[in-house]
Amino acid sequence: MQTGVSGESMNTAGIGFVKTDESSHFPGGRAIREVVFGLHDGLITTVAFLAGVNAASAGQRMIVIASLAEAFAQTLSMGFGAYLSTKSERELYQREIARERLEIETMPDRERDEMRQIYRNKGFQEDEVELVVTRLTADKDRLLKAMMVEELGLIEERFDNPVKVGLLMGVSSCVGAILPILPYLFLGLREAFIASMSVAAFALFATGAGKTLLTKKVWWRSGLEMLGIGLLVSAAGYGIGHVLGALWY
């Protein structure tokens, strides 16, 4: 660490709490994350369900009705779950900001001491500590941002609209759930099962490959990974359905 930092060379960018330029990041990253997760969950859950009820020797009419009911319930569950989790995350962040702002207003000396200790622990020399603390405490908003990062570990960020997140998750989950059900509306039971598993396998591989837009991993490896998970879950669902069907009937 360079010591003897002057006031001219020390600026807030070096302290680590200012916003950074995110232009290099994928602009639709969060939306794609919700879509990929929704599709994945919808596909996996429905494929396992279909495999199970097929193995249990349920009639085609019952399979379609039960699968559509499961898809509808899952859509609502995923959508509302995403909405509530996003809303709660934003509310928690806002609550912590309000609490920290109140402490800065009512206990400024204690906040200064906390900031001094934080930078001592980072290895700053005393003159550097005083320089940083003086700079921070000269602006309450600047001090608030620093305390949020250094004391609470919360990074300033833009939170997505909970309604938008819920809709994205719900719709993508619904699409993922409906795809494996469609063959049962047009084909016989045996043909529908084969077609359903084939459609699901293709969709799982495509979803896994598609998420590499975010992860920047090898697309075919990511696709095979998601396909493998789908096959494992389907086999488990089929096995459980077969056992329960044998016991029930």
From TrEMBL:
Family matches, as InterPro entries: Ccc1_fam
GO molecular function: manganese ion transmembrane transporter activity
A GO cellular component annotation in the UniProt record: endomembrane system
Presence of the UniProt keyword Zinc in the record: no
Keywords assigned by UniProt, alphabetized: Membrane, Transmembrane, Transmembrane helix
Membrane topology label: Multi-pass membrane protein
GO BP terms: intracellular manganese ion homeostasis
Residue ranges crossing the lipid bilayer per the database entry: 35-56, 62-85, 165-186, 192-214, 226-248
Main location: membrane
Keyword Transmembrane included in the entry's annotation: yes
Localization terms from the record: Endomembrane system
Gene source species: Methylomirabilis oxygeniifera
Protein name: VIT family protein
